[in-house]
Amino acid sequence: MSCPINSEAIDKLKQFIQVCKSNPDILHLPDLKFFKDYIQSLGGYIPELPKMSGPKAEPKQEPEESFEDNIESDPESDLELDMTGCVEPDKLDDNQKMGDASKEITEEESDKADEKRIEAMSQLSEGNIQNAIELFTEAIELNPNSALLFAKRGQAYLKLNKPNACIRDCTRALELNCDSATAYKFRGRAYRLLGEWELAAKDLRQACTIDFDEQIDEWLKEVTPNAKKIEEHSLKKERKKKEKEETERFERVRRAREAHAEAAAKHKDEEMPSATESGAGGVPGMGDFYKLLQDPEIMTAFQDPEVAAAFQDISTNPANFVKYQSNPKVMALVSKLSSKFSGSGMGFPGFGEAGAGAGFPGFPGFPGFPGAGMGGAAPPPPKPSEDDNLD
């Protein structure tokens, strides 16, 4: 059976199959749906398209909003980018050989590289993109220091919708020649296909500056609207960031001042003795006196109306102490107080070692026992009557 297709058509079919092998994603193009359906009808497998990894039209907000999220969600900063014409990013191919940069190139190798380049350009113009890439690769291996070879191979990769491969070649070309308008041109176009609008605009502007042509200008006009939106968004974001940093700095200063003032006030209070420490009414040593009276047994004893009345009577006139010497409750409390004060080294106020007679101070403010003054001198003893037996 003879082949119904002529040799020229077969050659083109071979080229098409080669393109499909190098970039299977093109089978998802609407124009090639018939071929994709045919392959699948035969049980063939078509790889799924990878998820888009370029910039998104609208920024995604996290469930818990941070400062950055607030900026992104600001109506003034919302981005509405036209992503028409963007393609899926390609994976870098290990077969994209970059040559030996340290190689010393002979004149003969340089001439052969030029011959390969001319042949590759011919194949590229005829649409034989994969053949052109292979020829450019051979030329690069002969002369890895030619910026033009990398830039032109990058152009070929761009025709296969392989922007990342193009960017890699053009970046290498610019490392060899920083003024390569061709490398800036095709790298800028590759960035545009990935949706990297700012980078695309930057490269295309540089290409126009070095060597203006109408195609570069057209591509630059295409990316400028999105690039301008992103630049304005970045400026707003930076402004809000600075405002937040300034607000936080002001808040830190305010908190530091408040903490300093609080510490100073606390230090001042610690230096000034309290009324309890200096004694009620400013009398030195009375702080210790009141501390001793906090004994639970003494507190309980003063809750007894009989004891309270007795000490009230004694505080009015310490000489009345003799009336209660036979009262076990009163004398038990007196004994308790005496032991407390003797243990503190203070001595029981109002009662000397002999008991009554030195004047008994009151207990002002003590629960259930109003005092009659603090540490006042004892009233003078009663004058003897005329019928006392005095010689």
TrEMBL record:
All copies of domain STI1, residue ranges: 295-334
A Pfam family per the record: HipN
Record has Zinc as a keyword: no
Residue spans of biased composition, Acidic residues class: 64-81
Gene3D superfamilies per UniProt: 1.10.260.100, 6.10.250.3420, Tetratricopeptide repeat domain (1.25.40.10)
TPR repeat residue intervals: 113-146
GO molecular function list: Hsp70 protein binding; protein dimerization activity
GO cellular component labels: catalytic complex; nucleus
Biased composition, class Basic and acidic residues, residue ranges: 88-105, 243-271
SMART domains for this protein: STI1 (SM00727), TPR (SM00028)
Keywords: Repeat, TPR repeat
Stretches the record annotates as Disordered: 47-112, 233-281, 370-391
Function (record text): One HIP oligomer binds the ATPase domains of at least two HSC70 molecules dependent on activation of the HSC70 ATPase by HSP40. Stabilizes the ADP state of HSC70 that has a high affinity for substrate protein. Through its own chaperone activity, it may contribute to the interaction of HSC70 with various target proteins.
Assembly notes: Homotetramer. Interacts with Hsc70 as well as DNAJ homologs and Hsp90.
Family under the similarity heading: Belongs to the FAM10 family.
UniProt cross-references to PANTHER family, sorted A to Z: HSC70-INTERACTING PROTEIN
Record's protein name: STI1 domain-containing protein
Species assigned in the record: Phaedon cochleariae
